[in-house]
Design a protein that fits this description.
Order of helices and strands: EEEEEHEEEEEEEEE
Distance between the termini: 30 Å
Number of helices: 1
Strand content: 35-45%
Amino acid sequence: GLQVQFQRRISRGLEVLSNYTWAHAIDTNSSETQAVEFYETPAINRGNSDFDRRHIINVALTYKPERIAFSSLNNLAGKGLRSTVNGWLINTNFKAQTSTPLTVTVYRSMYPISPNSRTVRVDRVSGKPLWVSLSTALGGKILNADAFSVPSSCMQSDPTLCREGNTPRNSIPGFSSWQEDVSLDRTFPLHDAFKLHFRADFF
């Protein structure tokens, strides 16, 4: 993994804090409850971890504008504007990250040997696109069912012959995501012992 951080005051009242993380998690089993068949070696499941997230970037900005005197206005108007306009604090936090990986699997019944079923990875069909466009789907695309097939070993009558397909574990990237949060903050002095705190958050 790699982590880089940048922090600096860009100008008066403006500060930026950003960090970037690159990581690659690899394992043979990401779950304590996931079983490995007795005839398989752990190496056959070696691949990206279920929680592998390759890139993460965060950028936080804090801005407190300089006070405006409004000296050209009379005392009453200038005081009113100074109390209303000055003292605001603006914060924004932007986060973008790549998705955790996906694995396409099928279920094979173990009947009559066992009442349970077995989950195996599918075969990848060459020449077929991994994704197809669909305007009504989240992200505008879905996995292409024609790009995968059930392993031939799982099509036989003996369920014990069913083996993993040629698609590596967690080899399909999911959808990246981003989010930006903005807050507006201000404390209004009402009296020596009382203050009014205002905060608005936008997600």
